[in-house]
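Input chain follows. Return structure tokens only.
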Amino acid sequence: FVHPGEASHGDLGMITPDDVVIALSNSRETDEIVALLPVIKRLNTPLITLTGNQDSTLAKSSTVNIDVSVEKEACPLGLAPTSSTTATLAMGDAISIALLETRGFNENDLIEFDEKIKKFLNLENTKKINEEIEDELIEAEKKYNAINQNLKEIQLKLSGLKENKAR
């Protein structure tokens, strides 16, 4: 996942020619996404878009564009993206199911995938790391307090020297 706003701050390097970029936009020319298009094109990375405006720069730049336009938003002011977000969500679900069926993904695959995720996350290891970090923070706090105490003692000695010189 690459957030378009973060892409311009270094995350764009995560996109490779082996990826497929899926971009969503209703009708406006979203600057953050449009700015990514030259890089996506240069990398020859496939771009699938779900847009509400088939004439948008994003739609025209895509390898495949899926029309998710709606006649009218449910919001009585026509401002809040309501129907358009629902249409995009439904299309995303449809794409997911189509990929699942095309790849022949089944319950056993899900169980295997879940086990791989658990091993990757290694929850016991994460717990141990958190404990080590907590121990390090406690030690750092002790050192900070000791340094702070030393500084207070030095400050007292310096103020005592100033008083003696003033007499």
